[in-house]
Amino acid sequence: MKAIRYHARRDIRLEDVAPPSEDLKPDQVLVEPLVCGICGTDLHEYVAGPIVTPVEPHVYSGATLPQILGHEFSARVLAVGADVTHVAPGDRVSIQPLISPRDDYYGRRGLYHLSEKMACVGLSWDWGGLGERAVLNGYNVFKVPDTITDVQAAMIEPAAVALYGVDRGGVEAGSSVLVSGIGPIGALTLLAVKAAGAATIFVSETNPNRRALAKELVPEAVVFDPTAGDDILATIRAATEDGVGVDVALECVGAEASLNLCAEAVRRRGTVVQVGLHTKRAAIDAMLWALKDITLEATWCYPTTIWPRVATMIASGRFPVERIVTATIRPEEVVDKGFEALLDPTGRNMKILVAMGSGA
């Protein structure tokens, strides 16, 4: 079968590999990937890895490089193990890619995303969404309603990251919110903030193309360039009750300046949510955080139980995740029109999907 495999830094190849066995374990599912997104994590591996892709056998999954990429994908079920009853051949599914013990400290508490042994489909598992076939555990496979498209089903995974951040911030109807950084997760966070009922929304983004997209997604949002030299904090405060600042600030880019902007923009007893991943240490004004009595919420992935909720929000039209997709490409185009296109500093592309299956 054809599969896109990561070998090393800037070394991704479309290759012929042996397909998975159809002799499934009782709790396994064989799927045909349909549509798969290229994630920021995949980009980090491409430009600076291996980072989370395992050079030595993974402690839980045993996977090693080269790795079939792809953890944001929709699929069609081809076969199921004897103990699998929640999906059947022919079903369209969205993949929840986290793989971890069910019986360690975190697993016993249902906090599967926090396990120290966690693996991930498409990063540290033998199979991924950028292959023509994949074998998964039953708990990784969620049947989607007919009202959800293959593209929307593939977008549930990154949407779950965004929604979890909004949940942790306690955003509710009437909230004032700052979203800092409009990459794919930031854009989805902006949509999730809107869906949660935020009344006053600010967006900070340095890239003009992404600022324009933010206005398209949520026209009423106040969108600004934090490097423009304007008194941004005064603008934010002027639009909040008594000029105190926003209730919640969501940091979605993983940059020190963005994190500090969030701390400055949020009101006293407000909440800053760290959604973006920092690749190096960030210096902060800890005294400011103390004086303002700020709550910091840091997020890692998402609770795996969030899938039905995200799917329902998408099906209802309240969470139009497909709107951030800017291109769909073929597997043979994945390097030039996928990874390299996403590294373009102009930021013309937001989310690029790869059409893998016959039904995509």
Architecture overview:
With 360 residues, the chain is of the alpha/beta class. It folds into two domains: 168 residues, Medium-chain alcohol dehydrogenases, catalytic domain (Quinone Oxidoreductase, Chain A, domain 1); 138 residues, Rossmann fold (3-Layer(aba) Sandwich), CATH 3.40.50. The chain is built from ten helices and 18 strands. α3 crosses α4 and α3 packs across α9. The longest helix has 14 residues. The two termini are 17 Å apart.
Quickly list its features.
Rossmann fold; Quinone Oxidoreductase, Chain A, domain 1; 18 strands; six-stranded parallel beta sheet; alpha/beta; 2 domains
Structure described in brief:
This protein has 360 residues and is α/β, with parallel strands linked by helices. The chain has 2 domains: 168 residues, Quinone Oxidoreductase, Chain A, domain 1; 138 residues, NAD(P)-binding Rossmann-like Domain (Rossmann fold, 3-Layer(aba) Sandwich), CATH 3.40.50.720.
